[in-house]
Amino acid sequence: MAVERTFSIIKPDATRRNLTGKVNAKIEEAGLRIIAQKRVRLTPIQAEGFYAVHRERPFYKDLCAFMCSGPVVLQILEGENAVARYREVMGATNPANAAPGTIRKEFAESIEANSVHGSDSAENAETEMAYFFEDREIVG
Ligand code: CMP
User: Fold this and answer.
1) 136 C-alpha to ligand 1 centroid (Å)
2) Gyration radius of the chain over CA positions
3) Is the CB of 26 under 6 A from ligand 1?
4) Contact by Cβ (8 Å): 131, 21
5) Distance 93 CA to ligand 1 centre (A)
6) Which of 8, 114, 120 for a ligand 1 pocket mutation test, highest count of atoms within 8 Å of Cβ?
7) Helix or strand or coil: residue 11?
């Protein structure tokens, strides 16, 4: 299987509860390597652009406001089959449906405040990585 990269966000509900290290431990225990990472506060423009694919969904406005409500940690993860692997480690979008041991099962507060985002395809991973990172910030 090929080594690939995926994009991750540790969301404001997790940074607020000081869970960055615990989330990163889950990522690293799963065999994924954090090859880029920065803690930032998203602007409304950045959040609205990032989630533009959900523009028509009823939760879009609240989601964008939530993503700007506190610090987030933007990351690029590298490893074998990284997109699918990270989705396994995160668990289902709704923590009520997430498997035991996953990040969302252990840490998420709700379907919106679900602690982490991860790309859903290799193609979207490329777009999402480029949205937030310059090449020189990625150290593989
Ligand atoms: P994420 O993986 O970041 O992608 C879109 C986000 O929308 C999702 O995680 C959730 O945080 C948020 N969201 C809020 N409500 C819903 C919903 N009903 N269905 C899917 N995603 C939702």
Assistant:
1) 30
2) 14
3) no
4) no
5) 6
6) 114
7) coil
Task: Encode the chain (140 residues) as per-residue pLDDT tens digits.
Answer: 699 999 999 999 999 999 999 999 999 999 999 999 999 999 999 999 999 999 999 999 999 999 999 999 999 999 999 999 999 999 999 999 999 999 999 999 999 999 999 999 999 999 999 999 999 999 99
Active site residue 54: no
- Report the alpha-carbon distance of residue 30 to residue 128 in Å, rounded: 21
Q: Name the maximum alpha-carbon separation found in the chain.
A: 39
Residue 37 backbone phi and psi in degrees, to 5: -160, 130
Atom of ligand 1 nearest to the CA of 66: 11
Q: Which of 78, 61, 54, 62 is nearest to 138 (CA)?
A: 78
Specify the pTM: 0.98
